[in-house]
Design a protein that fits this description.
Blueprint: E1 2-7, E2 12-17, H1 23-36, E3 39-43, E4 46-49, H2 52-64, H3 67-74, H4 78-92, E5 97-100, E6 103-106, H5 108-133, E7 141-146, H6 148-151, H7 154-163, E8 170-175, H8 178-186, E9 194-198, E10 206-214, E11 216-221, H9 234-237, E12 241-245, H10 250-262, E13 267-272, H11 275-283, E14 289-292, H12 293-302, E15 308-312, E16 319-326, H13 333-348
Parallel strand pairs: 7-8, 7-9, 12-13
Antiparallel strand pairs: 1-2, 3-4, 5-6, 9-16, 10-16, 11-14, 11-15
Helix pairs in contact: 1-5, 2-3, 2-5, 3-4, 7-13, 11-12
Length: 349
């Protein structure tokens, strides 16, 4: 594991080993590392960096265009801004601004650095918030990753149910696809406490809690003859255009297994990542699509039901819904309560 220290007098980053004593220390160290990991130039084999305050001042000048407005924004004196800028330019070995007409105009080098400074400014804000939260019990903050399928209705319903009894808990919700959710939860920073997804696969280091099962159905344009059947076979679907989803997602994997089992393939000239987009396209008559019952419930609520029918697929497998977490960051009380709220909302669909 790599940690670091910053030698302020020379503005040089030295990397060394450190022992992770607890998760809070590691979170703090990782955030600091992210903030200071801003390489600008190399001198004699060392990485020369701007420290966090210099980045903040550079960012403020870029946003405002004057020393006066930057000082007001940061609530410091103008001489402090000017001194920091001169020191930064001396460290870098090139100018960041041209001074004309009382305003500072960024050089090409400054514009190049600004995009990175924006990212690091965000990290500084995250770091400050993290430092404040470390004074409190970290169980007061849940960071949850969920696929788009769950984010339309299921997650909002679960949030409402959870917050009714846990109003002091802060929630951060991120919409991600399956592999990204698992990677986020596995990230050693513990930035994502909890993920919800279909299936899990072989993913060492992840714990899982089974939430429930959902059905797979076909959403079929209403003017197709098979739309009037009580159920449809994979072979019958294969005779029509299918709006597909990209490989690697759990639903796509389930559909692929059904095709292999029946020895058929689908003709898909439209493929999308988002199941709800696939359902919307099917409702416009552009093809049939195979969706889970969560997406189906959303489609029935928000799309014109006169344009499509939802038909069960013969011998279709159920999709398993799981909550996932890292063994390095066991589920706390609020995470368990949110899982319970999510499970109740899934059952209510």
């Amino acid at each position: 594991m790599l940690g670091f220290s910053v030698k302020n007098c020379a503005h040089i980053v030295h990397l060394h080993s450190f022992t992770k004593t607890n998760s809070k220390e590691y979170l703090l160290c990782y955030s600091i590392h992210q903030i200071y990991n801003f390489a600008l130039t190399i001198r004699n084999g060392y990485i020369i960096v701007m420290n966090g305050r210099q980045i903040e001042i550079f960012h403020a000048i870029m946003r405002t265009g004057t020393v006066t407005e930057a000082a007001q924004r940061l609530r410091v004196t103008q001489p402090a801004i000017t001194a920091s800028l001169k020191q930064t330019e001396a460290i870098l070995g090139f100018n960041l601004f041209h001074r004309t007409g009382g305003r500072l105009h960024p050089t090409a080098a400054a514009r190049t650095l600004y995009a990175e400074a924006e990212r690091i400014q965000d990290s500084l804000d995250v770091f400050r918030n993290l430092a404040k939260r470390l004074k409190k019990d970290l169980t007061d903050h849940l960071r949850i990753a969920t696929p788009p399928t769950f984010s339309h209705d299921l997650i909002p319903d679960a949030i409402a149910k959870f917050k009714a009894k846990n109003n002091d808990c802060i929630l951060d919700i991120t919409t991600r696809h399956h592999d990204h959710i698992l990677s986020d939860v596995q990230n050693p920073t513990g930035h994502t406490n909890l993920g919800f997804t279909f299936g899990l696969g072989d993913r060492p280091g992840l714990g899982m809690v089974h939430i429930g099962t959902v059905k797979i159905s076909a959403l079929i344009p209403v003017n197709w003859s098979i739309a009037n059947q009580d159920e449809v076979t994979v072979n019958e679907l294969a005779e029509h255009p299918i709006i597909g989803t990209f490989a690697g997602e759990p639903l796509s994997n389930a559909v692929e297994q059904m095709m292999l089992k029946n020895g058929v393939g689908f003709d898909s000239d439209i493929r999308v990542h988002n199941h709800s987009v696939a359902a919307k396209l099917a409702s416009k008559g552009l093809g049939a699509t195979i969706i889970d019952s969560i997406t189906a419930a959303h489609a029935l609520s928000y799309y014109d039901q006169n344009q499509f029918k939802l038909v069960p697929i013969q011998d279709a497998p159920d999709m398993q819904v799981f909550a996932v977490y890292s063994y390095e960051h066991p589920l706390n009380k609020n995470a368990k309560l949110f899982i319970d709220a999510f499970r109740q909302c899934l059952k209510a669909l």
